[in-house]
Specification:
The chain contains 7 helices and 21 strands. The chain is α/β, with parallel strands linked by helices and 341 residues long. The strands form 4 sheets. A 9-stranded mixed β-sheet has the order 1-2-7-8-9-11-10-5-6, sandwiched between helices. Strands 3-4-18-21-17 form a 5-stranded mixed β-sheet. A hairpin with a 5-residue loop joins strand 12 and strand 13. The chain is globular.
Length: 341
């Protein structure tokens, strides 16, 4: 195994991962784009955005989400049912062991990030991915750290995402070969058989949905911005109903476009980026999102790129209506740098 980039002293052996190929730690967007092109994982648009395809899953797989259920009183804190399905600790261990074997000899990409912009509620996380473009997505979506912090980074929660890994329902208790498994005791998220990057984002949201209410913080699926007088506005709505568009107001500072906490100290962003729907995107209607979707380092998910001129066709829905652009929040000119207000 050879380490590249800026590794943490808290190595991957702490996650039961051994005999790996090359491990690329905390690469910059430029270095990740080089890896993406070299590995032929995605196309580049004329503006340098990465246009990646997610495979069979072009959206989330809620019927394939599981939480490990332990025989202790804390299991009552979870609303078990068709959404929060349970797996046993033994089933989780079987998945983790087989995933560790699957990853032997393979290259991996690691991003050591932060979830939660408020200093009091910051959660150190680690995202380990099989593909470089998912590492770029994670770099864009979560809160980035200065380089000097990487060596000492110890994650409080670790997510491992491997589209090539397929669960075995007969042995491991899953509904299909696709799985998103959260273990709150061991502090892991394991994702397999789906390349949809939104599973990474929403899995960390699931973690914060569980942890933060125990600290008297309301977790919210909403966008937020703030005016000159400190008046915070929240925009609630289902996916695709306009949260990102409405909160990207040139006359107000954007706190965040999708996930926030509300504490006694105010409202804070969980993330460090935006994940905007782009189907039928028009510059005259959504100029901020349009501009961000045409920048180097943005990830375009399931957006068709013309093979000749490399222009993105945001009207093309042949793969899905759920086309997306993932970009860091500093691509929005008028954003709140602290992430809270």
């Amino acid at each position: 195994m050879q380490n590249y980039g800026l590794p943490s002293n808290f190595g991957l052996e702490n996650h039961g991962l051994y005999n790996l190929g090359n491990v690329y730690w905390n690469l910059s967007p430029a270095a990740l784009v080089e890896q993406i092109v070299r590995r032929r994982e995605a196309d580049l648009s004329a503006d340098g955005a990465v246009a990646a395809f997610t495979g069979q899953h072009t959206g989330r797989s809620p019927k394939d989400k599981y939480i490990v259920r332990y025989p202790d009183p804390h299991s009552d804190e979870i609303w078990w049912g068709t959404v929060n399905q349970s797996l046993t600790p033994d089933q989780f261990q079987a998945i983790h062991s087989r995933l560790s074997a699957y990853l032997q000899g393979r290259d991996l990409f690691v991003q050591d990030m932060i979830a939660g912009a408020h200093p009091r509620y910051r959660l150190p996380i680690r995202v380990i991915t099989e593909y470089a473009w998912h590492s770029l997505f994670s770099h864009n979506l979560f809160i980035r750290q200065p380089e000097e912090y990487f060596s000492a980074h110890v994650p409080s929660f670790t997510l491992i995402q491997c589209p090539g890994f397929i669960a075995e329902p007969e042995i491991e208790g899953t509904r299909s070969g696709t799985m998103i498994v959260v273990d709150f005791e061991k502090r892991y998220v394991l994702i397999g058989n789906t390349g949809y990057a939104g599973e990474i984002k929403k899995s960390i949201f699931t973690v914060l949905n569980y942890l933060l209410p125990q600290q008297d913080v309301l977790s919210m699926h909403c966008s937020a911005n703030v005016g000159e007088r400190g008046d915070v506005a929240l925009f609630f709505g289902l996916s695709g109903t306009g949260k990102t568009t409405l909160s990207s107001d040139p006359d107000r500072q954007l706190i965040g476009d999708d996930e926030h906490g509300w504490s006694l100290d105010g409202v804070f962003n969980f993330e460090g980026g935006c994940y905007a729907k782009t189907i039928r995107l028009k510059p005259e209607l959504e100029p901020i999102i349009w501009s961000a979707a045409h920048r180097f380092g943005t990830v375009l998910e399931n957006v068709i790129i013309d093979k000749t001129n490399r222009q993105a066709d945001f009207d093309d829905d042949r793969l899905t209506e759920n086309t997306r652009a993932a970009y860091p929040i500093h691509f929005v000119p008028n954003h709140m740098k602290t992430g809270y207000a």
